[in-house]
Automatic annotation (TrEMBL):
It comes from the Bacteria. It comes from Paenibacillus contaminans. Residues 240-473 form the Peptidase G2 IMC autoproteolytic cleavage domain. GO terms for cellular component: outer membrane. InterPro entries: Adhesin_Head_dom, Peptidase_G2, Serralysin-like_metalloprot_C. This is Uncharacterized protein. Residues 12-31, 177-203 form the Trimeric autotransporter adhesin YadA-like head domain. Pfam families: Peptidase_G2 (PF11962), YadA_head (PF05658).
Length: 485
């Protein structure tokens, strides 16, 4: 079978298996274990100290890491009532069930049986320190597909998952956990930092004790508040991004953005711009792409034109440095979605089928020992031998990575053409941002003075008057800074 072992008390049992180092064990075909007290089986690779790799393509490296695919529970609390019981929450376990236990510190994973159960509490036969348990797994068949654990005391326990760092857990399909004590639970989720949890499908949690528990949500910072939305389905009104600024005693957010574009902040918004502006369309379309910066404008219906000294109403000044800009429609046509008569976007629920991923499982083999044949006179007729026996054929499995449900989406306007390029108003000559409040630069005819007042002349240019807009400063021979309120 070409098995090979070297070092101190190593064992290699299986076709092309290899074990080296100190008390390392390679069990099963093509297994490779190296280092100290490492265990690898069936096409897996374990290296380092106390690592455990179980399943085809599994890889565990570092210090007390575990790469395995199985049903698992994360330990919530331990040492109930001073005894050896472990609380793992609601479960369907029974006394006598065989489990694999990964530990927090200074102990390699071990297989043990449940000796006692009462409600959510279980007790194992040989575990003397339940407070050291990190995660408990069962159904650990070797049908895993390439989980990878590295670092210190990490656990990778699902298809294509990856755990690295210190005491991290990657439990979702194709999930990734890194840092210290982070957990990636959702499919294709990513947790990083310290004690962050990515619980939603496609979610991302980073920072310090953050939680991203909704579909495609991102949480960073420290101790954010729970995000609103579904863990597995997209919802346009759900939270998209939060920055937490809380503590262990009080979770809170500094900043929050929803998928519908709403933005919420805890404190001030600071900008180098100095006015509030909104986009308006020129009545003449600005056919020659004229630079009209610093001109006074007025309204004619819902469009703008240059203001004159005969206009009773002045809308504002063409601005180039606003702090806030309204009605900009930077990303999409303003009629992309259907709206009600008040301009509110209409939403609808859309049925979304479950999403699956195809996993190919390799055949599973078992190493069996055949006893030697002994003759009537005690002679050995046939030597004992090990052989590799097929115990399970290879097969293809479909796993659900996202369940069926309903997504909450805006209703598209049938007149919207996704193939047409959209040019934002900021880049179109017929639109300008009009500053209507704040400090604004205005063109003048050279007559305006500081601490004096101005209004537009016949061409939208400021001229000196006794009452009007306050002149704050002259910045150029034909430009002044005024206050609009």
């Amino acid at each position: 079978m070409s098995a090979h072992s070297e070092g101190f008390k190593t064992r290699a049992m299986g076709k092309a298996a290899h074990a080296e180092g100190n008390n390392s064990i390679a069990i099963g075909a093509h297994a490779h274990a190296e280092g100290r007290e490492c265990i690898a089986n069936d096409g897996s690779h374990a290296e380092g100290f106390g690592t455990f790799a179980h399943g085809w393509g599994a890889h565990a490296e570092g210090f007390y890491t575990t790469a395995i695919r199985s049903e698992s529970w994360i330990v919530k609390s331990t040492g109930v009532g001073g005894d050896k019981r472990i609380d793992i929450g609601s479960n369907n376990l029974s006394v006598g069930d065989t489990m694999l236990i990964a530990f927090r510190y200074n102990a390699p994973p071990m297989i043990d049986t449940i000796s006692y159960k009462n409600g959510d509490y279980i007790e194992f036969t040989n575990i003397s320190d339940p407070s050291n348990c990190l995660v408990i797994l069962r159904n650990f068949s070797s049908s895993s597909s390439a989980p990878h654990a590295e670092g210190f005391n990490t656990v990778s326990s699902s298809y294509h998952s990856h755990a690295e760092g210190s005491s991290t857990i990657a439990k979702g399909v194709s999930s990734h956990a890194e840092g210290a004590e982070t957990i990636a639970l959702g499919s294709s989720s990513h947790a990083e930092g310290t004690s962050s949890v990515a619980g939603g499908t496609n979610s991302h949690a980073a920072g310090y004790y953050t939680t991203a528990d909704i579909f495609a949500g991102t949480a960073i910072g420290s101790y954010n508040k729970p995000m609103a939305g579904s863990a597995t389905m997209f919802n346009s009104s759900a939270d998209a991004f939060v920055i937490g600024n809380g503590s262990s005693s009080s979770r809170s957010n500094a900043f929050r953005v929803a998928f519908n574009g709403n933005v919420y902040g805890l404190s001030a918004f600071n900008s180098s711009g100095a006015d509030y502006a909104e986009y308006f369309e020129w009545q003449d379309g600005n056919p020659n792409n004229e630079d009209r910066t610093g001109l006074f404008v007025t309204l004619d219906g819902d469009k703008i034109r240059k203001a004159t000294n005969e206009d009773e109403f002045i809308l504002g000044v063409v601005s180039v440095n606003p702090s806030v800009v309204g009605d900009s429609h930077q990303d999409d046509w303003n009629q992309k979605y259907l709206k009600d008569k008040w301009g509110r976007i209409r939403y609808q629920y859309i049925d979304e089928p479950e999403k699956k991923q195809v996993i190919t499982h390799n055949p599973e083999y078992e190493i069996k020992y055949s006893e030697p044949e002994i003759g009537d006179q005690g002679e050995i007729i046939k030597e004992g031998y090990y052989e590799e026996v097929l115990v399970k054929e290879g097969y293809v499995e479909e796993i659900i990575i996202s369940p069926a449900g309903q997504e909450y989406l805006p209703v598209l306007n049938p007149e919207w053409d996704s193939n047409m390029e959209y040019i934002p108003r900021e880049q179109r000559k017929e639109w300008s941002a009009i500053g209507m409040m704040g400090k604004l630069l205005v063109r003048d005819d050279g007559t305006c003075v500081v601490n004096g007042y101005c209004t537009p002349n016949g061409n939208g240019i400021a001229t000196r008057v006794t009452t009007g807009y306050r002149v704050m400063k002259r910045v150029a021979p034909n430009i002044i800074l005024i206050l609009v309120k």
